[in-house]
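Retro notes - structure team

What went well: the batch runner handled both jobs without manual restarts.
What didn't: labels got mixed up in the shared folder, which is why I'm recording both outputs here explicitly, each with its sequence directly above its tokens.

Job 1
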Amino acid sequence: MVPAREVVASLYGAYRLARFDAGGLRFLNDSTEGFWRSFFAAVLVLPFYLVLLVVRHATAMEHVAGVRFYAIEMIAYVIAWVAFPLVMASFARILDRDRFYVRFIVAYNWAAVLQNGVYLPITILTAAGLFADPLANTLGLAALGVIVVYVWFVTRTALEIEAGKAAGIVGLDFLLSILINAVAEGMV
């Protein structure tokens, strides 16, 4: 279990990074133990993700058996949390940034809690039909834009790389997410 003090400090560090304050990295446990503990972020996001799944199943996927839907979506959730760190292990080495890999993944994982705190409420309300299409699209795109810039800053800062390389990594992350979601949706 991750000590509550570390969770609070990590979320505060992620918040500082969201304000484009590189000093937020000081609040993250960038040890090997901190690396593994940072995946606790997936546990913090999970309740909100489950709400999204319940709403999606009830409104758009009612024709799909519940067990199948939830099993596929939960497997995709786990893969999404693991795939990018695995891919980045090789990319960090290629970019000669492997000494910053642990710090980056720790920052990336804790930042995901804030990202999902912005994105999931919009997605849940949209899936529930509480936002009309133009508003849903606008809010979704705005949230996505903010998240992309945030992840770019975290990437650039934690890996200490140039802006263009950070943008490429964010693009890779985005494409990997699209691929995982497309495969899961195709299986549902």
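Job 2
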Amino acid sequence: MQEENPWQTKGSKVHYDNPWIRVREDQIINPANKDGIYGVVEFKHLAIGILPIDEQLNTWLVGQYRYPLSHYSWEIPEGGGGLGELPLESAQRELKEETGLVASDWKQIFEMHLSNSATNERAIVFLAENLVEGMPEPEEEEKLSLRKVPLETACQMAMNGEITDAISLATLFWASANLLR
């Protein structure tokens, strides 16, 4: 059941805009019928996650330093896709760039909203199978590490806090429930 929107927007002002995000502040009337403000970060790209799985149930993790967190992070292969680009095409490109892998079988496994109290960021996650290994082709500003690990190990890393990225966690929990049973 979908309920009516209890929020009213009286006005909106953009405070920041770049090629990746736009930040706006809305003047609102909240569900308690009181005036207020609401800050929203609008993403200009779709978040893409890929779970590559080989015949032995191995997967690949990508490591990189995440500037906003000041923290090194292990993640499934991820990237951004243009809003006018097919999500599958974005996933195929990102998998090749980050891991060198090319998959012949693709399946969209779920969609999720990230930090939906403050952003409109949407993610689509794919399962990639029947893999051919090649050389990664990272973008020039990316400094990536690559690890091939058993899927069970990656899921354990998610369970014990070694992996903290939201898309990776959701994907590895999905894999644990759907691929490792």
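One thing worth noting from job 2: The beta strands are 8-17, 21-29, 35-43, 45-52, 58-66, 71-75, 78-82, 102-113, 122-132, 145-150.
We'll revisit the folder naming next retro.
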